[in-house]
């Protein structure tokens, strides 16, 4: 494994090396604007198999396929409907994944037997250059061992993947920090299967309607629209509790009522001084959801090093990007959530 530093510029020779390795069916970790992805040639069944092995991913949880131009889209999926076209025009490239009817060129294991595939056209320059130069669609789930927080910087993931991939491309910290909004148009209504930076309001503005899948804050069992909803996600090894109140004093009270001597806290900088005797990790300023989403996954990894017996995490308002933050945090806490 070699780490390739593209933080300041994309070296053409190194880019060619990366493309060769992807064309040969090897695995490469690369940055996107959301989180790092662990990628392989989406048209090579064996390469795709190796992604599942490297992550320890359940074999019914499909991968999304990354493209760098709209000709690729045409090869992979059938003609999108008018509503789907509007979504593509509005949100691609960007932190957005659209579930579309797949063609047979995509191997079965990418979509785990479903007749659909998630397509994502990333905005991040390094991701786009890699895909474009390789001239292949790239299947890539988030770069993390299954159940762990997604990787948002190379230092967080190098240990768990160094023996499993050919290259790790370093693009610095990912901008958004949580994964793309996943949308499927069901009965002509764009339905959010996984919330993200593209919010329900953004989608409503473009097509006039939007639905949020009922499992966004709820544990899913049995048959679900998106298999990823069923699995343990984003979890530190230490047990976590998520707390939230619109009322600031109540929020502080909720933390105080649940705290033990050996509790770590993840919360906003404004509340740090209330807990001088505890390890307090700042995720950003209150209500600055861009800052919070950028920092949260790395903090969820870091806080394990405290060796506390409990992590209390301060929630945010379930609005805009806050919907996505709460969707991830509720899972980090295994649905251990108190709101007042
Ligand atoms: O931002 C992102 O989307 C990142 C970067 C690397 O692009 N990728 C990512 O992939 O988060 P992954 O595999 O960790 O999450 C993809 C989600 C999973 O929850 C999966 O179940 C769902 O998308 N998904 C994939 N294909 C699907 C399909 N055909 N129908 C419904 N859900 C699907
Ligand atoms: Mg993931």
Architecture blueprint of SSEs:
Blueprint: E1 2-5, H1 12-23, E2 28-30, E3 37-41, H2 45-55, E4 64-66, H3 70-76, H4 82-91, E5 96-101, H5 108-111, E6 116-120, H6 125-134, E7 138-139, H7 154-161, E8 167-170, E9 181-186, E10 189-194, H8 200-207, E11 211-212, E12 240-244, H9 248-258, E13 263-268, E14 279-284, H10 289-302, E15 310-314, H11 321-332, E16 337-339
Parallel strand pairs: 1-8, 2-8, 4-6, 5-9, 10-11, 12-15, 12-16, 13-14, 13-15
Antiparallel strand pairs: 2-3, 3-7, 4-7, 5-6, 9-10
The structure holds threonylcarbamoyladenylate and magnesium ion.
Magnesium ion binds at residues 141-142, 150.
Q: How would you sum up this structure, described in words?
A:
By secondary structure, this protein is α/β, with parallel strands linked by helices. The protein folds into 2 domains: 2-216, DHBP synthase, CATH 3.90.870; 240-339, Rossmann fold. The protein has helices at 12-23, 45-55, 70-76, 82-91, 108-111, 125-134, 154-161, 200-207, 248-258, 289-302, 321-332; strands at residues 2-5, 28-30, 37-41, 64-66, 96-101, 116-120, 138-139, 167-170, 181-186, 189-194, 211-212, 240-244, 263-268, 279-284, 310-314, 337-339. Helix 1 (12-23) crosses helix 6 and helix 10 (289-302) runs parallel beside helix 11. The longest helix is centred in the last third of the chain and has 14 residues, at 289-302. The structure holds threonylcarbamoyladenylate and magnesium ion. The site of threonylcarbamoyladenylate (TXA) has 28 residues, from strand 5, strand 6 and strand 10.
């Amino acid at each position: 494994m070699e780490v390739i530093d593209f933080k300041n510029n994309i070296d053409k020779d190194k880019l060619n090396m990366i493309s060769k390795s992807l064309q040969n069916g090897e695995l490469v970790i690369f940055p996107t604007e959301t989180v790092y992805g662990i990628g392989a040639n989406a048209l090579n069944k064996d390469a795709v198999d190796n992604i599942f092995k490297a992550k320890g991913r359940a074999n019914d949880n499909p991968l999304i396929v990354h493209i760098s131009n709209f000709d690729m889209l045409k090869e992979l999926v059938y003609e999108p409907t008018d509503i789907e076209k509007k979504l593509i025009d509005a949100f691609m490239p960007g932190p957005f994944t659209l579930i579309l009817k797949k063609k047979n060129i995509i191997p079965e294991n990418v979509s785990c037997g479903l007749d659909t595939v998630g397509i994502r056209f990333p905005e991040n320059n390094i991701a786009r250059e890699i895909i474009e130069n390789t001239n292949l669609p790239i299947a890539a789930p988030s770069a993390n061992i299954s159940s762990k927080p997604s990787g948002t910087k190379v230092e967080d993931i190098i240990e768990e993947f160094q023996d499993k991939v050919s290259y790790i491309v370093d693009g610095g910290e990912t901008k958004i920090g949580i994964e793309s909004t996943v949308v499927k148009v069901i009965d002509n209504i764009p339905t959010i299967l996984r919330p993200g930076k593209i919010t329900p309001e953004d989608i409503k503005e473009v097509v006039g309607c939007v639905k949020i899948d009922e499992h966004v804050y709820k544990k899913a069992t049995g048959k679900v629209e998106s298999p990823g909803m069923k699995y343990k996600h984003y979890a530190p090894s230490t047990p976590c509790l998520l707390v939230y109140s619109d009322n600031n004093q109540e929020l502080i009270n909720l933390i105080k009522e649940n705290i033990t001597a050996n509790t770590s806290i993840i919360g906003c900088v404004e509340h740090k001084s209330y807990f001088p005797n505890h390890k307090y990790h700042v995720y950003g300023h209150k209500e600055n959801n861009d800052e919070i989403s950028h920092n949260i996954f790395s903090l969820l990894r870091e806080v394990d090093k405290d060796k506390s017996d409990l992590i209390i995490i301060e929630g945010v308002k379930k609005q805009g990007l806050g919907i996505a933050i709460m969707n991830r945090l509720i899972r980090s806490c295994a649905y251990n959530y108190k709101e007042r």
